[in-house]
Amino acid sequence: MKNKFTITISDIRGSRHYTLNQIIKKVIMYIFLSIFFLIVSGAIYIAFLNNEVEELVGKKDGLQRDLDEQIAYYQVIQNKIEDIETIIGITPEDNNTNYDTRLESINLTTIQQSILLQLLPNGEVINHKGISAGFGTRDHPIYERTEFHRGIDFRAPLKTPIYAPAAGIVEFAGMQDSSGYGSLVIINHGFGFRTYYAHLDSTMVTKYGKFVKKGEHIANSGNTGLSTGPHLHYEVRFLGRPLNPMNFINWNNNNFSEIFEKEKSVQWESLLEMASMLLTSRQNQQ
Question: What is the DSSP letter of 159?
Fold first, then answer.
């Protein structure tokens, strides 16, 4: 009985005795101890996991707050960029959302461009129905001889509004039958640039020396002078020399530098320096 032990179980019906080997006793004890250890270890591990989950949730909430703040910050930047682009006339290509690139474009050069595009002829001047005669050599429709055409003829119904392509001063507004222009308006934009509007039906700017701004309604198309039908004859001149108006009609912020190659007779470097001086002067006055 050395390696055996007795288990006695008593109840109302009496006592029962069970004799077990000592080794089995140890095995049962080890099993109970293992189960107890697993239960305790599991409880500790679960408590550890709960603590980790709480920390991760806290970090997630913090990251979400940071993300929301960054989104709000970039939204403010986006709105400011769009406001500046609207003011200086930039249209992002293909809905570009690369704000770093767009921020780099809003610099002194762009502002200089905006100033020049307010002061120098650019963009459409009339809602036309096509071009009846381009810039350059052509056969004159009345004289029936080859001549140099100083501007572009835009087909347009009578009394179609004509708008100034830049700020300037009215240098002439009246009839000029000797040249064949008929009713004519000349606007001096400064920097050596003038624009001519011929064969007009009527003019909105009849006073010599009147200031006009870009986009202002200055006249209506007509059929006066040497004309075979209603249209607008439009010229752009630099120091009296005719330039191709189409280069200026197509000129905008998106292709600003192209005109430097197309119109090399203009001293563009000097104009850019002047724009820089104007900008500096405006900043000093503010």
Answer: T
